[in-house]
Amino acid sequence: MSSIDLFCDIHNNFPIYHIDLKNDSNKNLLCIKCISDQQMEMDFLLLPDIINCEEKLFLENWPPLSDEMLRNKIISLYTETNDVNQQIFDFYDKFTVEVNQILAEKKKEQLIQAQKMYEFKDKIIDQYCQMASVDKIKECFVQKNQKLKKIEKSLKNQIDSQHSAKDEYTSILSHMMQQYELISQLNIQKPTKIKQNILQILKIINLIPQNNFYFENTINLFSKNDIKNYQQKIKEESLIQQNNNQKIDYLMKQLDFCQDQLIQFINSNDWQIEDFLLNQQTFTVQNQMNPAQLLKDQHLNIFIKPKQIQNNDNNLSINFKFEAKLQVQKINNELDNSWFYIDYLLKPEKKYLVRINFEKSNLHSDFFAGIVSNFDRQQQLQSQGVGWNLTAFQNNLAQRVYIGSRDKLVQTFEFRICIKQQIFKLADFPNYCLIEIKDKFYIKSEAQYYFAIQFLSNYLRDKLEIDFQELDEIPNYW
Prior knowledge:
Elements (H helix, E strand, L loop, with lengths): L15 E5 L8 E3 H7 L5 E3 H5 L16 H12 L4 H49 L1 H9 L5 H17 L1 H18 L5 H16 L19 H44 L5 H16 L6 E2 L6 E2 L4 E3 L4 E5 L4 E6 L7 E5 L8 E10 L6 E7 L7 H4 L1 E4 L1 H7 L1 E5 L2 E13 L4 E7 L5 E3 L11 E7 L7 E9 L7
Antiparallel strand pairs: 1-2, 1-3, 4-5, 6-9, 7-8, 8-18, 9-17, 10-14, 10-18, 11-12, 11-17, 13-14, 14-15, 15-16
Helix pairs in contact: 4-7, 5-6, 9-10
Protein backbone atom coordinates (compact mmCIF):
# COMPACT_ATOMS: atom_id res chain seq x y z
CA MET A 1 0.00 0.00 0.00
CA SER A 2 1.17 3.56 -0.73
CA SER A 3 -0.14 6.92 0.43
CA ILE A 4 -2.01 7.45 -2.87
CA ASP A 5 -4.47 4.72 -1.90
CA LEU A 6 -5.84 6.72 1.05
CA PHE A 7 -8.00 9.79 0.48
CA CYS A 8 -9.30 12.41 2.84
CA ASP A 9 -12.90 11.91 3.99
CA ILE A 10 -13.37 15.70 4.23
CA HIS A 11 -11.58 16.94 1.15
CA ASN A 12 -12.48 14.59 -1.67
CA ASN A 13 -9.70 13.45 -3.98
CA PHE A 14 -6.99 14.79 -1.68
CA PRO A 15 -4.63 11.98 -0.69
CA ILE A 16 -3.71 11.35 2.93
CA TYR A 17 -0.15 12.45 3.40
CA HIS A 18 0.30 13.37 7.11
CA ILE A 19 -0.25 11.79 10.49
CA ASP A 20 -1.16 14.23 13.27
CA LEU A 21 0.75 13.26 16.42
CA LYS A 22 -1.30 15.24 18.96
CA ASN A 23 -3.20 12.97 21.34
CA ASP A 24 -6.18 15.39 21.53
CA SER A 25 -6.66 15.62 17.77
CA ASN A 26 -10.12 14.76 16.34
CA LYS A 27 -8.57 13.64 13.11
CA ASN A 28 -5.12 12.06 12.88
CA LEU A 29 -4.99 11.27 9.14
CA LEU A 30 -4.64 14.53 7.25
CA CYS A 31 -4.31 15.72 3.69
CA ILE A 32 -2.60 18.87 2.48
CA LYS A 33 -5.94 20.70 2.53
CA CYS A 34 -6.55 19.74 6.18
CA ILE A 35 -3.24 21.23 7.23
CA SER A 36 -3.82 24.35 5.19
CA ASP A 37 -7.29 24.87 6.66
CA GLN A 38 -6.16 24.44 10.27
CA GLN A 39 -3.45 27.10 9.93
CA MET A 40 -1.77 26.16 13.18
CA GLU A 41 1.51 24.70 14.35
CA MET A 42 1.34 20.97 14.00
CA ASP A 43 3.46 18.00 14.86
CA PHE A 44 3.10 15.38 12.18
CA LEU A 45 4.69 12.48 10.32
CA LEU A 46 4.76 11.92 6.59
CA LEU A 47 2.72 8.89 5.70
CA PRO A 48 5.02 7.69 2.87
CA ASP A 49 7.95 7.69 5.30
CA ILE A 50 6.01 5.45 7.67
CA ILE A 51 4.71 3.06 5.02
CA ASN A 52 8.05 2.68 3.28
CA CYS A 53 10.21 2.82 6.40
CA GLU A 54 12.95 0.40 7.30
CA GLU A 55 12.87 -1.63 10.49
CA LYS A 56 14.66 1.06 12.52
CA LEU A 57 13.40 4.48 11.51
CA PHE A 58 14.63 7.33 13.68
CA LEU A 59 11.99 10.07 14.04
CA GLU A 60 12.86 13.29 15.80
CA ASN A 61 9.28 13.90 16.93
CA TRP A 62 8.12 10.38 17.78
CA PRO A 63 7.53 8.55 20.16
CA PRO A 64 5.89 11.01 22.58
CA LEU A 65 8.03 11.95 25.58
CA SER A 66 7.28 14.09 28.60
CA ASP A 67 10.81 15.52 28.61
CA GLU A 68 11.83 17.34 25.43
CA MET A 69 15.35 17.92 26.75
CA LEU A 70 15.71 14.16 26.90
CA ARG A 71 14.54 13.96 23.27
CA ASN A 72 17.16 16.54 22.27
CA LYS A 73 19.86 14.46 23.98
CA ILE A 74 18.77 11.37 22.07
CA ILE A 75 18.69 13.30 18.79
CA SER A 76 22.24 14.50 19.53
CA LEU A 77 23.15 10.90 20.25
CA TYR A 78 21.76 9.85 16.88
CA THR A 79 23.52 12.60 14.94
CA GLU A 80 26.79 12.33 16.85
CA THR A 81 29.80 11.68 14.64
CA ASN A 82 32.43 11.52 17.36
CA ASP A 83 34.46 8.31 16.96
CA VAL A 84 35.22 7.15 20.50
CA ASN A 85 36.98 4.02 19.29
CA GLN A 86 39.43 6.10 17.30
CA GLN A 87 40.15 8.32 20.30
CA ILE A 88 40.88 5.26 22.43
CA PHE A 89 43.16 3.85 19.72
CA ASP A 90 44.93 7.21 19.37
CA PHE A 91 45.44 7.64 23.12
CA TYR A 92 46.89 4.20 23.79
CA ASP A 93 48.88 4.06 20.55
CA LYS A 94 50.47 7.42 21.29
CA PHE A 95 50.96 6.43 24.93
CA THR A 96 52.66 3.21 23.86
CA VAL A 97 54.96 5.05 21.45
CA GLU A 98 55.91 7.66 24.07
CA VAL A 99 56.56 5.05 26.76
CA ASN A 100 58.55 2.87 24.36
CA GLN A 101 60.57 5.89 23.27
CA ILE A 102 61.40 6.83 26.87
CA LEU A 103 62.30 3.23 27.72
CA ALA A 104 64.41 2.87 24.57
CA GLU A 105 66.29 6.10 25.36
CA LYS A 106 66.80 5.06 28.99
CA LYS A 107 67.97 1.62 27.89
CA LYS A 108 70.47 3.18 25.47
CA GLU A 109 71.64 5.64 28.12
CA GLN A 110 72.08 2.89 30.72
CA LEU A 111 73.99 0.66 28.28
CA ILE A 112 76.34 3.58 27.59
CA GLN A 113 76.88 3.98 31.34
CA ALA A 114 77.50 0.24 31.63
CA GLN A 115 80.07 0.45 28.80
CA LYS A 116 81.82 3.30 30.63
CA MET A 117 81.82 1.13 33.75
CA TYR A 118 83.47 -1.76 31.86
CA GLU A 119 86.04 0.60 30.33
CA PHE A 120 86.92 1.99 33.73
CA LYS A 121 87.13 -1.55 35.11
CA ASP A 122 89.73 -2.36 32.44
CA LYS A 123 91.51 0.90 33.24
CA ILE A 124 91.85 -0.10 36.91
CA ILE A 125 93.27 -3.49 35.96
CA ASP A 126 95.68 -1.86 33.45
CA GLN A 127 96.77 0.64 36.10
CA TYR A 128 97.33 -2.15 38.59
CA CYS A 129 99.45 -4.11 36.12
CA GLN A 130 101.40 -0.99 35.17
CA MET A 131 102.21 -0.30 38.81
CA ALA A 132 103.42 -3.87 39.22
CA SER A 133 106.21 -3.16 36.64
CA VAL A 134 106.74 -6.86 36.00
CA ASP A 135 108.67 -5.98 32.82
CA LYS A 136 111.31 -4.19 34.91
CA ILE A 137 111.66 -7.19 37.15
CA LYS A 138 112.00 -9.30 34.02
CA GLU A 139 114.84 -7.07 32.75
CA CYS A 140 116.86 -7.98 35.80
CA PHE A 141 117.12 -11.53 34.50
CA VAL A 142 117.21 -11.30 30.72
CA GLN A 143 120.59 -9.56 30.28
CA LYS A 144 123.34 -12.07 29.32
CA ASN A 145 126.45 -12.86 31.29
CA GLN A 146 125.26 -11.04 34.45
CA LYS A 147 126.64 -12.14 37.75
CA LEU A 148 124.28 -13.15 40.50
CA LYS A 149 125.25 -10.23 42.70
CA LYS A 150 124.43 -7.74 39.96
CA ILE A 151 121.10 -9.41 39.30
CA GLU A 152 120.28 -9.38 42.97
CA LYS A 153 121.27 -5.71 43.27
CA SER A 154 119.08 -4.69 40.33
CA LEU A 155 116.20 -6.71 41.71
CA LYS A 156 116.67 -5.18 45.16
CA ASN A 157 116.58 -1.67 43.68
CA GLN A 158 113.39 -2.48 41.80
CA ILE A 159 111.71 -3.95 44.86
CA ASP A 160 112.76 -0.98 47.03
CA SER A 161 111.46 1.41 44.38
CA GLN A 162 108.09 -0.34 44.36
CA HIS A 163 107.86 -0.33 48.14
CA SER A 164 108.68 3.38 48.30
CA ALA A 165 105.74 4.05 45.96
CA LYS A 166 103.24 1.75 47.67
CA ASP A 167 101.40 4.58 49.49
CA GLU A 168 101.06 6.48 46.22
CA TYR A 169 99.89 3.32 44.44
CA THR A 170 97.45 2.55 47.22
CA SER A 171 96.01 6.06 47.12
CA ILE A 172 95.55 6.05 43.35
CA LEU A 173 94.01 2.58 43.22
CA SER A 174 91.84 3.30 46.25
CA HIS A 175 90.32 6.37 44.61
CA MET A 176 89.85 4.52 41.36
CA MET A 177 88.09 1.67 43.18
CA GLN A 178 85.85 4.15 45.02
CA GLN A 179 84.91 5.68 41.69
CA TYR A 180 84.22 2.23 40.25
CA GLU A 181 82.07 1.22 43.22
CA LEU A 182 80.03 4.40 42.78
CA ILE A 183 79.42 3.96 39.06
CA SER A 184 78.91 0.17 39.12
CA GLN A 185 76.07 -0.08 41.63
CA LEU A 186 73.33 -1.96 39.79
CA ASN A 187 70.04 -1.18 41.56
CA ILE A 188 67.25 -3.39 40.20
CA GLN A 189 65.12 -3.47 43.34
CA LYS A 190 64.13 0.21 43.58
CA PRO A 191 63.41 0.71 39.85
CA THR A 192 61.36 -2.50 39.99
CA LYS A 193 59.33 -1.01 42.83
CA ILE A 194 58.81 2.20 40.87
CA LYS A 195 57.81 0.14 37.82
CA GLN A 196 55.28 -1.80 39.91
CA ASN A 197 53.78 1.45 41.22
CA ILE A 198 53.54 2.88 37.71
CA LEU A 199 51.88 -0.29 36.43
CA GLN A 200 49.47 -0.19 39.36
CA ILE A 201 48.56 3.42 38.57
CA LEU A 202 48.02 2.57 34.91
CA LYS A 203 45.57 -0.17 35.88
CA ILE A 204 43.19 2.28 37.58
CA ILE A 205 43.11 4.81 34.73
CA ASN A 206 40.11 4.41 32.42
CA LEU A 207 39.08 6.54 29.47
CA ILE A 208 35.51 5.18 29.68
CA PRO A 209 33.83 4.06 32.91
CA GLN A 210 33.11 0.40 33.50
CA ASN A 211 29.62 -0.66 32.40
CA ASN A 212 28.21 -2.70 35.29
CA PHE A 213 24.58 -2.69 34.18
CA TYR A 214 22.88 -6.04 33.57
CA PHE A 215 19.32 -5.04 32.66
CA GLU A 216 17.32 -6.31 29.70
CA ASN A 217 17.32 -3.91 26.75
CA THR A 218 13.74 -4.58 25.66
CA ILE A 219 11.27 -2.07 27.01
CA ASN A 220 8.47 -4.64 27.20
CA LEU A 221 10.39 -6.48 29.90
CA PHE A 222 10.55 -3.47 32.21
CA SER A 223 8.12 -3.66 35.08
CA LYS A 224 7.72 -0.99 37.76
CA ASN A 225 10.02 -3.00 39.98
CA ASP A 226 12.59 -3.20 37.17
CA ILE A 227 12.51 0.57 36.78
CA LYS A 228 12.97 1.01 40.53
CA ASN A 229 15.96 -1.33 40.50
CA TYR A 230 17.31 0.46 37.45
CA GLN A 231 17.10 3.81 39.25
CA GLN A 232 18.88 2.36 42.28
CA LYS A 233 21.62 0.89 40.11
CA ILE A 234 22.11 4.23 38.37
CA LYS A 235 22.55 5.93 41.75
CA GLU A 236 25.05 3.31 42.85
CA GLU A 237 27.06 3.50 39.63
CA SER A 238 26.96 7.29 39.72
CA LEU A 239 28.43 7.26 43.22
CA ILE A 240 31.11 4.75 42.16
CA GLN A 241 32.03 6.95 39.21
CA GLN A 242 32.10 10.04 41.41
CA ASN A 243 34.37 8.28 43.90
CA ASN A 244 36.66 7.04 41.12
CA ASN A 245 36.92 10.57 39.73
CA GLN A 246 37.84 11.87 43.17
CA LYS A 247 40.52 9.20 43.47
CA ILE A 248 42.00 10.18 40.11
CA ASP A 249 41.84 13.89 41.04
CA TYR A 250 43.66 13.17 44.28
CA LEU A 251 46.23 11.02 42.50
CA MET A 252 46.89 13.80 39.98
CA LYS A 253 47.20 16.30 42.81
CA GLN A 254 49.64 14.11 44.68
CA LEU A 255 51.73 13.36 41.59
CA ASP A 256 51.83 17.07 40.68
CA PHE A 257 52.87 17.88 44.23
CA CYS A 258 55.64 15.26 44.16
CA GLN A 259 56.93 16.52 40.82
CA ASP A 260 56.87 20.19 41.81
CA GLN A 261 58.48 19.53 45.19
CA LEU A 262 61.20 17.30 43.76
CA ILE A 263 62.08 19.82 41.06
CA GLN A 264 62.18 22.59 43.65
CA PHE A 265 64.38 20.64 46.05
CA ILE A 266 66.68 19.16 43.42
CA ASN A 267 67.29 22.58 41.84
CA SER A 268 68.29 24.08 45.20
CA ASN A 269 71.85 23.75 46.37
CA ASP A 270 71.09 22.46 49.84
CA TRP A 271 68.03 20.27 49.29
CA GLN A 272 67.43 17.42 51.71
CA ILE A 273 65.29 14.37 51.00
CA GLU A 274 64.07 14.50 54.61
CA ASP A 275 62.52 17.92 53.95
CA PHE A 276 60.74 16.58 50.88
CA LEU A 277 59.38 13.57 52.77
CA LEU A 278 58.20 15.80 55.62
CA ASN A 279 56.37 18.10 53.19
CA GLN A 280 54.89 15.10 51.39
CA GLN A 281 53.67 13.69 54.71
CA THR A 282 52.10 17.03 55.66
CA PHE A 283 50.43 17.23 52.25
CA THR A 284 49.02 13.71 52.62
CA VAL A 285 47.67 14.24 56.12
CA GLN A 286 46.14 17.58 55.17
CA ASN A 287 44.26 15.87 52.35
CA GLN A 288 43.31 13.00 54.60
CA MET A 289 41.71 15.44 57.02
CA ASN A 290 39.90 17.51 54.46
CA PRO A 291 36.20 17.69 55.49
CA ALA A 292 34.60 15.42 52.92
CA GLN A 293 33.63 11.81 52.47
CA LEU A 294 36.09 9.04 53.28
CA LEU A 295 37.11 7.22 50.13
CA LYS A 296 39.64 4.43 50.46
CA ASP A 297 41.50 3.74 47.25
CA GLN A 298 41.72 -0.03 46.90
CA HIS A 299 44.47 0.15 44.27
CA LEU A 300 46.94 2.58 45.77
CA ASN A 301 46.16 2.15 49.46
CA ILE A 302 45.70 5.90 49.90
CA PHE A 303 42.87 7.87 51.39
CA ILE A 304 41.09 10.71 49.63
CA LYS A 305 39.36 13.53 51.43
CA PRO A 306 38.14 11.68 54.53
CA LYS A 307 35.52 13.19 56.78
CA GLN A 308 37.71 14.31 59.61
CA ILE A 309 35.56 13.98 62.70
CA GLN A 310 32.55 11.98 63.86
CA ASN A 311 31.05 12.96 67.21
CA ASN A 312 27.97 12.07 69.23
CA ASP A 313 26.49 15.51 69.94
CA ASN A 314 26.76 19.22 69.22
CA ASN A 315 28.62 20.08 72.40
CA LEU A 316 32.03 20.15 70.72
CA SER A 317 33.49 22.84 68.48
CA ILE A 318 35.91 21.36 65.94
CA ASN A 319 38.30 23.50 63.87
CA PHE A 320 41.29 22.82 61.66
CA LYS A 321 44.58 24.64 61.92
CA PHE A 322 47.65 24.48 59.69
CA GLU A 323 49.72 21.35 59.10
CA ALA A 324 46.92 18.85 59.68
CA LYS A 325 46.26 19.93 63.25
CA LEU A 326 42.76 20.18 64.62
CA GLN A 327 41.28 21.83 67.71
CA VAL A 328 38.35 20.52 69.72
CA GLN A 329 36.66 22.53 72.47
CA LYS A 330 33.75 21.92 74.83
CA ILE A 331 31.14 24.61 74.07
CA ASN A 332 27.98 23.27 75.80
CA ASN A 333 27.49 21.68 79.18
CA GLU A 334 24.14 20.05 78.53
CA LEU A 335 25.67 16.58 78.28
CA ASP A 336 28.69 14.91 79.79
CA ASN A 337 30.71 12.25 77.98
CA SER A 338 30.94 14.04 74.64
CA TRP A 339 33.21 11.99 72.39
CA PHE A 340 34.61 12.00 68.89
CA TYR A 341 36.84 9.87 66.71
CA ILE A 342 39.05 10.71 63.74
CA ASP A 343 37.33 9.03 60.81
CA TYR A 344 40.55 7.55 59.47
CA LEU A 345 41.02 3.81 59.72
CA LEU A 346 44.44 3.03 61.19
CA LYS A 347 46.53 0.93 58.81
CA PRO A 348 47.85 -2.12 60.69
CA GLU A 349 51.41 -1.94 59.32
CA LYS A 350 51.84 1.84 59.79
CA LYS A 351 53.11 3.66 62.88
CA TYR A 352 51.06 6.54 64.31
CA LEU A 353 52.42 9.41 66.35
CA VAL A 354 49.63 11.45 67.96
CA ARG A 355 50.38 14.44 70.18
CA ILE A 356 47.54 16.04 72.08
CA ASN A 357 47.85 19.32 73.93
CA PHE A 358 45.17 19.55 76.63
CA GLU A 359 43.95 22.86 78.04
CA LYS A 360 41.87 22.21 81.16
CA SER A 361 39.61 24.93 82.46
CA ASN A 362 39.11 23.13 85.78
CA LEU A 363 41.22 20.95 88.04
CA HIS A 364 38.60 18.20 87.77
CA SER A 365 38.37 18.22 83.96
CA ASP A 366 38.61 14.66 82.80
CA PHE A 367 39.51 13.06 79.45
CA PHE A 368 39.86 9.56 78.06
CA ALA A 369 42.01 9.00 74.95
CA GLY A 370 42.68 5.83 73.00
CA ILE A 371 41.63 3.61 70.13
CA VAL A 372 38.22 2.11 69.42
CA SER A 373 37.35 -0.76 67.10
CA ASN A 374 35.33 -0.36 63.93
CA PHE A 375 32.38 -2.12 65.54
CA ASP A 376 32.40 -0.04 68.75
CA ARG A 377 33.18 3.43 67.42
CA GLN A 378 29.59 4.62 67.95
CA GLN A 379 29.81 3.65 71.63
CA GLN A 380 31.38 5.51 74.53
CA LEU A 381 35.15 5.24 74.27
CA GLN A 382 35.80 4.69 77.98
CA SER A 383 33.62 1.60 78.10
CA GLN A 384 34.48 0.09 74.69
CA GLY A 385 37.92 1.45 73.73
CA VAL A 386 41.54 0.80 74.69
CA GLY A 387 43.27 3.78 76.27
CA TRP A 388 43.88 5.88 79.35
CA ASN A 389 42.02 8.20 81.67
CA LEU A 390 44.38 11.18 81.57
CA THR A 391 43.20 13.09 84.64
CA ALA A 392 45.56 11.54 87.15
CA PHE A 393 48.72 12.04 85.10
CA GLN A 394 47.73 15.43 83.83
CA ASN A 395 47.22 17.05 87.19
CA ASN A 396 50.64 15.85 88.31
CA LEU A 397 52.45 16.97 85.16
CA ALA A 398 50.41 19.96 83.95
CA GLN A 399 51.66 23.51 83.95
CA ARG A 400 49.38 26.27 85.15
CA VAL A 401 49.37 29.05 82.57
CA TYR A 402 47.31 32.09 81.69
CA ILE A 403 45.65 31.90 78.29
CA GLY A 404 44.01 35.24 77.59
CA SER A 405 42.67 36.27 80.96
CA ARG A 406 41.97 32.73 82.15
CA ASP A 407 44.01 30.38 84.29
CA LYS A 408 44.35 26.94 82.67
CA LEU A 409 46.18 23.68 83.22
CA VAL A 410 48.14 22.72 80.09
CA GLN A 411 49.84 19.43 79.30
CA THR A 412 50.86 17.57 76.13
CA PHE A 413 50.77 13.80 75.74
CA GLU A 414 52.27 11.65 73.02
CA PHE A 415 50.69 8.41 71.83
CA ARG A 416 52.47 5.78 69.76
CA ILE A 417 50.40 3.16 67.97
CA CYS A 418 51.04 0.18 65.69
CA ILE A 419 48.13 -2.25 65.35
CA LYS A 420 50.09 -5.02 63.62
CA GLN A 421 52.77 -5.04 66.34
CA GLN A 422 50.13 -4.52 69.08
CA ILE A 423 51.94 -1.43 70.33
CA PHE A 424 50.12 1.30 72.23
CA LYS A 425 52.23 3.66 74.35
CA LEU A 426 51.60 6.90 76.21
CA ALA A 427 54.14 9.46 77.45
CA ASP A 428 54.20 13.07 78.56
CA PHE A 429 55.74 15.36 75.96
CA PRO A 430 58.45 16.62 75.65
CA ASN A 431 60.05 15.37 78.88
CA TYR A 432 58.94 11.70 78.79
CA CYS A 433 58.93 11.47 82.56
CA LEU A 434 55.90 9.20 82.47
CA ILE A 435 55.65 6.26 80.10
CA GLU A 436 52.69 3.87 80.05
CA ILE A 437 52.40 0.78 77.82
CA LYS A 438 49.24 -1.24 77.19
CA ASP A 439 49.55 -5.02 77.31
CA LYS A 440 49.44 -6.59 73.86
CA PHE A 441 46.36 -8.68 74.58
CA TYR A 442 44.26 -5.48 74.66
CA ILE A 443 44.91 -4.93 70.94
CA LYS A 444 43.79 -7.40 68.29
CA SER A 445 46.18 -7.26 65.34
CA GLU A 446 43.44 -8.30 62.89
CA ALA A 447 40.92 -5.68 64.12
CA GLN A 448 40.21 -2.25 62.63
CA TYR A 449 40.71 0.77 64.88
CA TYR A 450 40.12 4.53 64.99
CA PHE A 451 41.73 7.08 67.29
CA ALA A 452 39.18 8.67 69.62
CA ILE A 453 38.84 11.01 72.62
CA GLN A 454 36.07 11.37 75.18
CA PHE A 455 35.34 14.41 77.36
CA LEU A 456 34.38 12.86 80.69
CA SER A 457 33.39 16.17 82.31
CA ASN A 458 31.17 19.05 81.25
CA TYR A 459 33.38 22.05 81.98
CA LEU A 460 33.11 24.68 79.29
CA ARG A 461 36.26 25.79 77.50
CA ASP A 462 38.03 22.46 78.01
CA LYS A 463 40.10 22.34 74.88
CA LEU A 464 42.59 20.12 73.07
CA GLU A 465 44.75 20.31 69.97
CA ILE A 466 45.69 17.19 68.03
CA ASP A 467 48.71 16.61 65.81
CA PHE A 468 48.09 13.32 63.93
CA GLN A 469 50.96 11.74 61.96
CA GLU A 470 51.18 8.51 59.97
CA LEU A 471 54.75 7.21 59.63
CA ASP A 472 56.71 4.19 58.44
CA GLU A 473 58.93 4.38 61.51
CA ILE A 474 58.92 6.40 64.75
CA PRO A 475 62.16 7.80 66.23
CA ASN A 476 63.22 5.59 69.11
CA TYR A 477 64.02 8.18 71.74
CA TRP A 478 61.94 6.77 74.58
